[in-house]
Amino acid sequence: MKLIRAGISTIHRVTEGYKSRWRNLYYKVRGVNLNGYVWMRKIEIPRNFEDIEIESPCAIDRGVILLCSGEPLPHPKIYIGANTYINRNTFLDAILSLTIGKNCAVGPNCYITDHDHGHDSQLPPLNQPMLAKPTQIGNCVWLGANVTVLKGVTIGDRTIVGAGSVVTHELPADAVAVGVPARVLKYRN
């Protein structure tokens, strides 16, 4: 019985490996800049493939959405550094510049963006102009489950953001931040 389970497990891993390699090929042909092999489960990139750059090795889990909108720019709108893991059902939404550094861990169900809509009371929400500022997540950052990172935020290297937090302003390096809005609770060193 143990041998049968081991065989099934091996078949599953090999099958998932082939699917990941197929997704790499598909997205490279569509224009995504994959710098080497990226372990990729079933993800969604609806459009603007050429606006995305992902370093290798990197892992992107099931249900992740990488959405770039607007006119093409001379730089990637979404950049993901090497050795970073983007967990399930995370949504990266960019129109200007959203950067995630190397060796980061992004928990499940996170939302990270570089823009929002204006606040003109005379216009309906969907007619508001888009307001964008670069969002930057440093190296070795850990975002817990269900974290939201809003436009214009910079998160310093080695910072930890607790589950369910909403990051509305800059967080320094080596901080542990939690809450809505996220506030520095302590420093790691």
Question: SSE order in H/E notation?
Answer: HEEEEEEEEEEEEEEEEEEEEE
Per CATH, the architecture is 3 Solenoid
Number of H- or I-type helical stretches: 1
Widest sheet: strand order? 2-4-7-10-15-18-20-21
Which of globular, elongated, flat, extended, rod-shaped describes the shape? Answer: globular
Amino- and carboxy-terminal Cα gap? 49 Å
Report the portion of residues in β strands: 25-35%
CATH topology: UDP N-Acetylglucosamine Acyltransferase, domain 1
Mean pLDDT, as a whole number? 94
Based on CA atoms alone, the radius of gyration comes out at 18 Å
SSE class:
alpha/beta
The CATH class turns out to be Mainly Beta
What features would you highlight for this structure?
189 residues; UDP N-Acetylglucosamine Acyltransferase, domain 1; 8-stranded mixed β-sheet; 6-stranded parallel β-sheet; 21 strands; 15% helix
Task: Describe, in short, the structure shown.
This protein has one helix at 2-30, and strands at residues 33-35, 39-40, 52-55, 59-60, 65-68, 78-80, 85-86, 91-94, 98-100, 105-106, 111-113, 115-117, 130-132, 135-137, 142-143, 148-149, 154-155, 160-161, 166-167, 175-178, 183-187. The chain is an alpha/beta fold.
